[in-house]
Amino acid sequence: MSSEPSIFFADANERQGSFLRRTFVLGGLTTLAGVALTGRLAQLQVFQAGEYATMASNNQFNFRLVPPPRGEIKDRNGVVIAGNRPSFRVLVVRDETKDLDQTLDLLGRLLPDTLERRRSIIRDVNAAPRFSPVPVKSDLTWEEFAKVNLYANELPGVMADMNEARFYPFGGAFAHVIGYVAKPNDRDIKAIEERGEKVPEILYNPGFRIGRQGVEKAFDADLRGEAGGNRVEVDARGRVVAEDIGGSRPAVPGKDIVLTLDADVQNRALEVYGEESGGCVVMDVRNGDILCMMSAPSFDPNLFVGGVPSTVYRALADYERKPLLDKTINGVFHPGSTFKLTTALALLEAGVNPTERVVCTGGYRFGNRVFRCWDHGGHGPQTMHDAIKNSCDVYFYHMCNRAGVDKIQDVAKKIGFMQTYDIGVSNQKAGTIPSRAWKANYNKRNPNPESRVWFPGETLSVAIGQGDVNVTALQLAVMTSRFANARKAIVPRLVKSVGGVNQPSGADVPDLPFSREHLEIVRQGMVAVANDVSGGAYRQSQLGLGDIQMAGKTGTAQVRSYGTGSRKSNVWALKDHNLFVAFAPVDEPRYAVAVIIEHGGKGGATAAAPRAREIMRTTLLKDPEMLERIQRPLPPAPEGPDVTEDSFGAAPDDPDGLAPAPAARPAAPSAPTASTGPRPYLSEPRR
Q1: Residue 399: is its pLDDT beyond 60?
Q2: Among the residues of 557-608, which ranges form H helices?
Q3: What is the largest CA-CA distance in the chain?
Q4: What's the pLDDT score for residue 154?
Q5: What is the 3-state secondary structure (H, E, C) of 68-115?
Q6: In angstroms, rounded to a whole number, what is the distance separating the alpha carbons of residues 529 and 554?
């Protein structure tokens, strides 16, 4: 028989005491828990109520950055050349889509061109912050915009709205000087971080744009403005359900930039260039204002705003005429005979008598070589004035070593070459004017000591703007402006004002360090080129604007050695460069122009001068004072056997028609394009 264990209490009091102890322990623990819970609730609801209310509000409301309207860029007359326009766009929010691939498939049925950019769209969407709308396509037509809204319920995470997009109303006319805008990339972010600066949060906004080239890049900080923000109410999934107007902050628009450019002159320059390649700069010789800075061929900057397709970019980059290169400040060219103006001034500063004659027989023997003049028949006796008017090479061959290459370089620097200018736009090239020190430094690694020695024969090429002489169109315009002004070392000015604050004038500069008499001798040579009936560009320089005359100088530069063969070529890259510099009016200089026709294949008088004339005509007609002068009655027409109605005064009806040079003045080039190293002598340079 089994027995079960039993607990025996001595009496009933002992059993009751055990129960009471357990009750007290449990009760105490319950009381402590209640006190702790009550204290925590008091802490949350009384002492930390404000803190948690703020956190709850932040979960309920989001602050989304809004890109500011970009500042406008205007010409000197207030014409907008870079502004903003309304644009319909479609956006995708990754966190609101159930399946991004499926959403893009459905969107592709409505907007087929988005399928071509599917990979880049997915990359942008994945890189964007959470709940941040990413533009998929901009510039939707009204039909596309309506179609997206019609099927919005079937496209979760897709929305269509209207924003402001950058717009360039003149297309390629200002593309190089203005530049364009594009989305910030990793390199932009890294560059800011390397400078030790904090990356603005707005740069991560998919709809934000920054300046890439030209004025857009140089003044990006001013044009950018300050980002605003919308305070929006969101649900548990982060979707926007309402906007808190009171908590939103408006964006501050960027500052407007006013340039010295004139839209009419700039457009006229691009028009007269036609299919030619090159650069043109027009300056006010009184204050340095740049009225035109045009590079051709150009490109449409509007293509870059939304992201240019790689095929289009490659086509632009690979085209031999280099439409992406700014040929006014970033392209260097041999100046050819336009440089003879600088050489003549150097000779005068070295003490050469301008009335001394040099007989040109068509060639000049130096050592065991004969250097040909462009006129193989010779010009006969030539003073300095005659040599400039006729662009006689032999005169400058004969005289150049009286000044020497170092003197020529020194004068060239003072007249405007071998330097860049603070016009607000970077990416300028300084060019090259050789000297003895320059050659020694250039060839310092060459073991042959003779390679570092300057030989007098090399000065001959420099004197006529060939060999290692390389300049920009802007520098040629500065040179011409200083000769025209004849007092001040005028510097160019491109930016007139920033946010309403005027920029310094280009006339606030020292005087030119040259004799007024010497400057006038060179100026009169330019007057003869364009106004003496025997001048090299007489017929091409007649403005047909009353009594206003233009002074100028032609130039042609070789890009290859002719040897004993013909200078003509059907290959564009082997044709000569053509140049022309001028100022007007002769008696009251106001404007200077420099024109470069890259591989134009003709002389400066037949390719560049007619275009310079048409650009100068537009410039003068835009000037109210000049227009008043033009409208005055003309003085009696000059009489004489050398002046006829056909050869004086009138410009051709066809602005692009290139009038041939006089038969006695065939055009010819100067020197091969040289960007590195000394070049051999040229046997047949031309004016």
Answers
A1: yes
A2: none
A3: 162
A4: 78
A5: CCCCCEECCCCCEEEEEEEEEEEEECHHHCCCHHHHHHHHHHHCHHHH
A6: 8
